[in-house]
Amino acid sequence: GKQEKITITNDKGRLSKEEIDRMVNDAEKYKNEDEVQKERIAAKNGLESYIFNMKSSLDQDQVKKTLSEAELKEALSKLDAALAWLDKNQLGEKEEYTDKQKELEADLKKLLEKLYANGGGQAGGCPPGSGGQQQSKNSNGEPTIEEVD
């Protein structure tokens, strides 16, 4: 008899070796740009987070008792100005964001020193000495001890 061999291949819609190599090369080429973009966004988010954390801290009763009305207004004004600057500079460079944050930190340094000196709280919002953790006390004022297995 007669014998024939048929091979069926499904290459339609698949990427060729050259196309895959080109895509890998492009990914390597843009890796550095992606890293710069990532650092820029991290710096921008860091500044924004600092502004909102400081605003939140200044809104605490203990802080309001420690600082004068004028000091609070001045600090909030600087924070609002920094936030407005951030809104206008969404496409800024990493260095611009870090410089702006350093400038803001320097502007608010005296107020923070006053807060710390008077035990008025930390910028993060937790009272001094708490280490950022809430400490529970029982009714006689002593710490509660819990056993953990």
Describe this structure in words.
The protein is built from 4 helices and no strands. The chain is mainly alpha-helical and 149 residues long. Helix 1 (17-58) runs antiparallel to helix 3 (69-88), helix 1 (17-58) runs parallel beside helix 4 (94-117) and helix 3 (69-88) packs antiparallel against helix 4. The longest helix is centred in the N-terminal third of the chain and has 42 residues, at 17-58. Residues 122-137 have low confidence and may be disordered.
Alpha carbon gyration radius: 29 Å
Mean pLDDT across every amino acid position: 81
Distance between the termini: 80 Å
Task: Give helix % range.
Answer: 55-70%
Estimated structural class: mainly alpha
H/I helix tally = 4
Could you name the ranges where pLDDT drops below 50 across 5 or more consecutive residues?
122-137
Order of helices and strands: HHHH
Describe the global form: elongated
The total strand number stands at: 0
Q: What order do the helices and strands come in, and which of them pair?
A:
Blueprint: H1 17-58, H2 61-66, H3 69-88, H4 94-117
Helix pairs in contact: 1-3, 1-4, 3-4
Question: Concise description?
Answer:
With 149 residues, the protein is mostly helical. It has helices spanning 17-58, 61-66, 69-88, 94-117.
Which descriptors would you attach to this protein?
single chain, 149 residues, mainly alpha, 4 helices, 0% strand
